[in-house]
Amino acid sequence: MDERCCIPDSASSSDAYWLLLQVLSLIPLWHYLLLAAFILFSLLYNFLELHFFQDLFSGFAGSPVLLSYNSSSQIYHAVVSKCDVLRGRYFATPWLCSPHLQTLFLNYFGRPPFLKYARELFRTADGGTIALDWLFSSHVSDNVGYEDESVPIVVVIPGLTSDSSSQYIKHLAYHTAKRGWNVVVCNHRGFGGVSITSDISYNAGLTEDVRAVVNHLHKERSKAPLFVVGTSIGANILVKYLGEDGENIPVAGAVAVCSPWDLLIGDRYLRRGRVQKIYDKALAFGLLDYAKLHQSHFSRNANWEGMEKSVSVRDFDDHATRVVGKYEVSVDTYYRRCSSATFVRSVSVPLLCISALDDPICTTEAIPWDECKANKNIVLATVKHGGHLAFFEGLSASRIWWVRAVNEFLGVLHSSKYMHVQDKEFSTKSSIGLIN
Ligand SMILES: *[C@@H]1O[C@H](CO)[C@@H](O)[C@H](O)[C@H]1NC(C)=O
């Protein structure tokens, strides 16, 4: 009798499993390895939120930029609708087909252009020091010696733990200066290699410093239109500043890139996702590095012991940021009071907001779509991919899409009649009031 084909009637279930095992053992090992590799690849593909196949099937054409605006917005009809970059598509670098790869590449490589700033130290009324890093167009282009007082100035507000030396800031500064405009990076207090010289350090809602710098620039160079570009936390500070000051502001136009919008929602998002927790830790380590550079300030004005143990942005904000900023009760109070989303409706200057829908740090959940739509001065441009502040494009990933979008928007706005002009009577009236 052939043992292999005949199963006795009395076969128990354990015999069945034994038989199954024998059958499975007939499958060559390399088939199993292939299956394991496939499963591993699928897990990694999902974990990294890769979109390579999506790109492949769409013929590497990228995805269209989604524009959200009030139907009677002149900023859309007269400015944004003339911007090819914003009316076009964004196609991510094929080998950076994931928000995480984009964001990591920006932070570890970034391919920043070579440039050298000229430093100006700005003193605030409370004794604080702000490092202003200038990049003049004459330093990066050929028209040496050409100085026109009406050349626009772009003021840049960096993100959390970023300064003028950060890769994306260099991309923005270089390409803006290359176009013929002057750039000044307004580093946060304690950044750019300067000490914290008063009891105040920066937080997500501290708008006094940008206001002071913008007013200073407006006084010194009254003929130059002033544009402000804020990135990440810098975008939150920018929108809050624009909302607080409304019409009475010497800013001609602005761009908010990858703003967190709502710090409470942002905090919950960072603490919820598995991948987000990694970002949260990394951001907290960055904050601790910065705090350790200014130990005497933080041990005097914050809870140093608690702060040192921070493993999340929330911990750091709880022990340091909100204590230094004197936000009472809880860190949530600080988040609520400083969220720029609540200031959106009083923004009175042309404002372009750019965000990636797959931003792994500043979640789309926090984007105030309806509030932006209700304000005619605001156009919201979102793209499907891009990560946080990355948006690399081209095969060599040497260009950043949002930098091109910012420059084109500001250029078209500058040549339109829709730049914001501060009401002269406003400032004269208030100075007469002062004399009386
Ligand atoms: C557009 O703006 C007008 C006036 O500012 C406002 O009444 C209207 O509700 C806005 N539209 C949307 C969709 O919010």
UniProtKB/TrEMBL annotation:
Q: Which UniProt keywords apply?
A: Membrane, Transmembrane, Transmembrane helix
| Ranges for domain AB hydrolase-1 | 152-394
Entries under InterPro entries matching the protein: AB_hydrolase_1 (IPR000073), AB_hydrolase_4_sf (IPR050960), AB_hydrolase_fold (IPR029058), ABHD4 (IPR012020)
Q: Does the keyword Chloroplast apply?
A: no
**What are the TM regions of this chain, as residue ranges?**
29-48
Record-annotated active site: 232 (charge relay system), 359 (charge relay system), 388 (charge relay system)
Pfam families membership: Abhydrolase_1
**One MF annotation (Gene Ontology) recorded for this entry:** monoacylglycerol lipase activity
Instruction: Give the protein family.
Output: Belongs to the AB hydrolase superfamily. AB hydrolase 4 family.
Please identify the protein, giving its name as recorded.
Answer: AB hydrolase-1 domain-containing protein
Q: What is the lineage of its organism?
A: Eukaryota, Viridiplantae, Streptophyta, Embryophyta, Tracheophyta
Q: Which gene encodes it?
A: Vigan.08G103200
